[in-house]
């Protein structure tokens, strides 16, 4: 299995010559040049967005979604208890990933006093921005300081943060969008403006489901962040976006991709598009990955087409 990239080209070429089946996964709406170059060498393509199948012109393409951490491992009440956040208040989660996180830190710094008046804020600052944001927390009135929780990063605690949150403001990488959807979280996407605009396409496709709103990176500042937080004061709008997020979610994406890999590895017939769609939507269940393929071995000529 591969996710493309220039380093994969010689490996995939060798696999084709040796008749070794290949599964390629692509998470962005608009695939990069290396993925477009390598997709034709793959037997199967799995994608997060339906539009990507057309972009790659793949003969055998499945919409699996993006494999993510299991959202069922922790519930909202347990997550809030783990993070030390009361059960009642609304919680805004802000994180910018590893790219251009300073834009998010500046917005939070400028909006912090207004934000903590209306909600609690959990903010992933990055290592470089943590001391500055901790100082901003210390500058809040004593009775408001506990409402702002800056973290340099979140690893294992990210699942708890997502389960505890009511609204996410973040970038538009495929994993971020998939996790927000799996937890039914309304989202304000601020797509990273570089990397050939991949995140912009992701954000627009996701917003089209009704689960998110998009703010351009150049327009994202303290006022834009406060405006985003107004969604927490709109119960009907929040509920509609949350429902749209859950409808767009594919929490079983890892099972769906694993099913395709198993079929390739055992050289059995690939599952139907409907079976993969079902797996992506609900997962394999307590029995594990939807059964190592039991169908007849695929005809070699059929697999090579």
Radius of gyration: 21 Å
User: How many strand segments?
Assistant: 9
Task: Categorize the overall geometry.
Answer: elongated
Average pLDDT metric: 90
**What count of domains describes the coordinates?**
2
Query: What class, by secondary structure content?
Result: alpha/beta
What do we call the CATH topology of the largest domain? Rossmann fold
Strand content: 5-15%
CATH superfamily of the largest domain: Glycogen Phosphorylase B
Description:
With 305 residues, the chain is of the alpha/beta class. The chain folds into two domains: 8-66 and 251-304, no CATH class; 74-248, Rossmann fold. The chain is 46% helix and 11% strand. It is built from 14 helices and nine strands. The strands form two sheets. Strands 6-5-4-7-8-9 form a six-stranded parallel sheet, sandwiched between helices. A three-stranded parallel sheet has the order 1-2-3, with helices on both faces. Strand 4, helix 5 (101-118) and strand 5 form a beta-alpha-beta unit. It is elongated. Residues 290-305 have low confidence and may be disordered.
How is this structure best summarized?
It contains 14 helices and 9 strands. The protein has helices at 8-17, 33-39, 50-56, 76-83, 101-118, 127-138, 158-164, 174-182, 198-207, 222-229, 235-248, 253-266, 273-282, 300-304, and strands at residues 23-26, 44-47, 61-63, 91-95, 120-124, 148-151, 167-170, 187-189, 212-214.
């Amino acid at each position: 299995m591969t996710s493309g990239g220039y380093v994969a080209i010689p490996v995939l070429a060798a696999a084709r010559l040796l008749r070794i089946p290949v599964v390629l996964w692509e998470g962005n709406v608009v695939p990069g040049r290396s993925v477009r170059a390598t997709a034709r060498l793959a037997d199967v393509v799995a994608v997060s967005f339906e539009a990507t199948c057309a972009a790659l012109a793949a003969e055998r393409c499945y919409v699996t979604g993006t494999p993510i951490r299991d959202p069922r491992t922790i519930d909202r009440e347990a997550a809030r208890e783990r993070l030390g956040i009361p059960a009642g208040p609304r919680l805004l989660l802000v994180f910018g990933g590893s790219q251009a996180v300073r834009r998010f830190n500046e917005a939070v710094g400028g909006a912090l006093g207004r934000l903590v008046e209306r909600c609690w804020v959990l903010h992933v600052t990055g290592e470089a921005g943590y001391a500055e944001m901790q100082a901003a927390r210390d500058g809040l009135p004593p009775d408001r300081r506990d409402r702002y929780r800056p973290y340099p990063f979140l690893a294992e605690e990210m699942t708890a943060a997502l389960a505890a949150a009511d609204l996410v403001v973040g970038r538009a990488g495929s994993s971020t969008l998939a996790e927000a959807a799996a937890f039914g979280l309304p989202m304000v996407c601020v797509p990273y403006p570089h990397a050939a605009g991949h995140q912009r396409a992701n954000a627009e496709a996701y917003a089209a489901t009704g689960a998110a709103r998009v703010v351009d990176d150049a327009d994202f500042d303290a006022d834009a962040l406060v405006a985003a937080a107004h969604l927490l004061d709109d119960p009907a709008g929040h509920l509609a976006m949350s429902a749209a997020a859950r409808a767009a979610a594919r929490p079983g994406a890892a099972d769906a991709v694993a099913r395709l890999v198993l079929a390739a590895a055992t050289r059995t017939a690939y599952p139907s598009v409907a079976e993969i769609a079902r797996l992506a939507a609900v997962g394999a269940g307590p029995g594990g990955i939807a059964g190592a393929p039991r169908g007849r071995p695929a005809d070699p000529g059929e697999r090579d087409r």
